[in-house]
Amino acid sequence: MYDIIIAGAGTAGLSAAVYGARAGKRVLVLEKEVYGGQIMSASVVENYPGIRKISGYEFAQGLYEQAMEQGAEIKYEKVLEIQNSETYKTVHTSLSAYDSRTVILASGAKNRHLQVAREEELTGKGISYCATCDGAFYRGKDVAVVGGGNTALEDALFLSGYCRKVYLIHRRDQFRGEKRLQDSLREKEHVIWVLESHVAALNGTGYLESVTIEQEPDKGKKELAVSALFIAIGQEPDNQPFASLVELDAHGYIKAAEDCRTSAEGIFAAGDCRTKTVRQLTTAAADGAAAALAACAYIG
Q1: Known catalytic membership, residue 134
Q2: In degrees to the nearest 10, what's the CA dihedral of 93, 98, 104, 106?
Q3: Which CATH number is 127-231's, of 3.30.240.20, 3.40.50.1970, 2.60.120.260, 3.50.50.60?
Q4: Which part of the chain has CATH 3.50.50.60?
């Protein structure tokens, strides 16, 4: 019998493991792939308080080692189902089943991809899913943002403070994002709107050098010379195995506030998998701490 089982070994899950283990609880982390989560793909992290500069790999490695040194266990098994009884929860995985007094869901969310050839190859080499993380690396250069919602507009606005030219690509003729953001962008002459268009190809040797834009409908193609493409077309939570366990919102995120409590007794949610406004490395770590301490208080 474990005190806390954590589904997911990203920043939120490993932070929860640190806090749970330090509280003297028996903690098991279950991860279907490798520990670290999305931050592993970041070449440089410069926005985590107290750490001036670190690679995503080094950050994840340090957090993993810290959790293990505190006494947490980790098993690389995919969580398939969780059964919730009044006294304990049973977590069924691809290999086994484990009982626990509490469970923390930290399954994260993944950035929705364009599904364009070479996207994976060029991630971290001009392809980015986080303008606030990587925008400063392209100071004085030409970049592009693809997307039509608030995130894309906010990314373009943020990048306009660093970059010489910002192309804003959207496949429709109007943006879904807030009018105030659109108005702010219209005031910036170096932000160029590329509407009714989609990214058809990513070009470059080793690093991104340009993107091929296909205009709709059937208006031909053109090439934009850019050093980076910031993809902001949404995220996809991986919460389907928990759909019958906890309440999800219309987009598949687990409904949980800042206390990380879900609709189910003794089940908590931390990190990008839950409903929240800001999804950053710092907020994932904060969620992990809050969820672990809430689980400890639940156990008593």
Answers
A1: yes
A2: -20
A3: 3.50.50.60
A4: 2-111+235-299, 127-231
Report how far residue 120's alpha carbon sits from residue 123's, in angstroms, rounded to the nearest whole number: 5
Residue pLDDT, tens place only, 172-216 = 999 988 899 999 999 999 999 999 999 999 999 999 999 999 998
SS3 sequence of 57-87: HHHHHHHHHHHHHCCCEEECCCEEEEEECCC
Phi/psi at 88 (5° precision): -160, 170
CATH homologous superfamily of 2-111+235-299 equals FAD/NAD(P)-binding domain (3.50.50.60)
133: annotated active-site residue: yes
pLDDT digits (tens, 9 = 90+) for 213-242: 999 877 789 999 999 999 999 888 989 899
Pick the catalytic residue from 3, 133, 260, 287: 133
Is 130 a catalytic site residue? yes
